[in-house]
């Protein structure tokens, strides 16, 4: 028996399941660590844009009080008045040429930049008449810049520049990121543990099924798998148990069939060998005795032929595909069988009586239908009593065709009725052998009838004898069968 190869670790279902589980959770964690931070940054950006542009607009409106040009003193005085409410890190006010009029950083006026050109991009853009806002987040700090022009009646008098260094909101965002990373780490650890546990639980059940398959492969068809859960794997286990049950039944039937076939073939072979040994060992055997022995050998050879032919028929029914069905008149086939069996019936003093309804068509082959009728009617004749009768009735309705074969013989005991369609089963073995029976005729009938969608049953006939009834789907007028 070849040994099963061990699956490499990286190709095992357990590894694949765990890796798939981990990759899915990793993708979710990446999304968890990026999307909330991006949304928070965007909200902070929009909030600062609105706030700082409004603050810059308020300051620019306070500076633009008349047609006079902005002065350093006036600009500084106005900024000082609004400085407490603005809450920014730096405020710069310039004239139309970009010269710094006043510069306040963290609430303190700077004098080193007064009178110099402010070369900030935001201020240059604002002096061109545009509102500007720009914000960035780096190293846990928001850096935001806003600039607006100071205008009076569409005349640019200067520009206002605001800069905010916000470490507090940056720290909040950084705290969110830290918490998300911690949560992600915990989820990763839990996911890793759960992934391994789930993978082991899944593959343990699959390994149980795999081990059961190996056990059955070695011939132990009675092995069953017990698996709960109510999921697909438990359904698979149920299907496996059902399959092994069928295999066990098939194997038991096969072994019994081989044993019975061997026994049935061994008996005539032993008789032939005994008779031939008797002939060979007899030095002076008269011709009459020799002829008797040879006749017995011929009978046993004929019996071997019958057994072999019926075994071949059963093998063909088991393996070969069904022949193409054609419309067959059951009544015509039964009449042919009756014609063939009439000499045998007269020899054993049995009367055949037919009651056939015309026009009973089924879909089958004529040869196999002939075999069904022949086996049933021949048995009814062979196992009847002298002076007995065989009643063959054919009836049909809109859906079915019934063929009933009844005899007035000794009948079949009730306990034997469920077994009479088994191969090699005989109720009275001594009488069956005397009548030339093989125990295979009814098995052939059973298999052939089922092949064409019919059923066959047997029951005791009152007051005496046995009744066999075969039911076929009736052939429809256009060639189909009635269901």
Tell me the layout of helices and strands.
Layout: H1 13-63, H2 72-86, E1 90-94, E2 100-105, E3 108-110, H3 121-127, E4 132-138, E5 141-152, E6 155-166, H4 167-217, H5 232-281, H6 287-319, E7 326-329, H7 330-347, E8 351-356, E9 361-364, H8 366-382, E10 389-396, E11 400-407, H9 429-434, H10 441-451, E12 455-460, E13 466-473
Helix pairs in contact: 1-2, 1-4, 4-5, 5-6, 6-10, 7-8, 8-10
Task: Give a verbal description of the structure.
The chain is α+β, with helices and mostly antiparallel strands and 483 residues long. The chain has 3 domains: 15-174, Beta-Lactamase; 244-316, Helix Hairpins (Orthogonal Bundle), CATH 1.10.287; 321-473, Histidine kinase-like ATPase, C-terminal domain (Heat Shock Protein 90). Helix content is 54%, strand content 18%. The protein contains 10 helices and 13 strands. The chain has a 6-stranded antiparallel β-sheet, sandwiched between helices. It has a 5-stranded mixed β-sheet with strand order 8-10-11-13-12. A two-stranded antiparallel sheet has the order 7-9. The longest helix has 51 residues, at 13-63. The protein is rod-shaped. The two termini are 49 Å apart.
Individual helix count: 10
Structural class: alpha+beta
The profile of the biggest β sheet is:
6 strands, antiparallel
**Helix and strand run:** HHEEEHEEEHHHEHEEHEEHHEE
Kindly state the number of beta strands.
Answer: 13
Strand order of the largest sheet: 3-2-1-6-5-4
**Overall mean pLDDT score?**
80
Radius of gyration (CA) equals: 52 Å
* Coarse morphology: rod-shaped
Give the distance, in angstroms, between the N- and C-terminal Cα atoms. 49 Å
**Text of the CATH class of the largest domain:** Alpha Beta
- For the record, the CATH architecture of the largest domain stands as 2-Layer Sandwich
How many structural domains does the protein architecture include?
Answer: 3
Task: Tell me what portion of residues adopts beta-strand conformation.
Answer: 15-25%
Q: Approximately how much helix is present in the residues? A: 40-55%
CATH topology of the largest domain: Beta-Lactamase
